[in-house]
Amino acid sequence: MFKPKYPTPDTYTPTPVRTAPAPVPVQTPPPPAPAPRTGFLDKTRANPTAAVVGVVAVGAVLVSTLLAVAITALALSVSGVVLLLLVRLLRQELNR
Questions:
Q1: pTM value surpassing 0.85
Q2: Which is the most buried residue in 6, 17, 86, 95, by most CB within 10 A?
Q3: For 65-89, how does the pLDDT look when each residue is reduced to its tens digit (9 = 90+)?
Q4: Can you tell me the distance from the alpha carbon of 69 to that of 66, in angstroms, rounded to the nearest whole number?
């Protein structure tokens, strides 16, 4: 009673739906990767902080090397003066 009854269509003939095959997408190769940056300028442009750190490190090594040379020169000059005085004292004692 509460379900409607539909009449059967007498003029309707279902036609099969034919879908066209989906076109296969042409796979294009990915673009080539950029060449790795190997030069000093390329690395500097990529990360300028690393360049600053590198310059500071090289400067520290150079300053410490110069300081070591200066300390060695000072020690040699002092030891040379002491040896000269010792030799002069020994000569004076031997001449007496």
A1: no
A2: 86
A3: 999 999 999 999 999 999 999 999 9
A4: 5
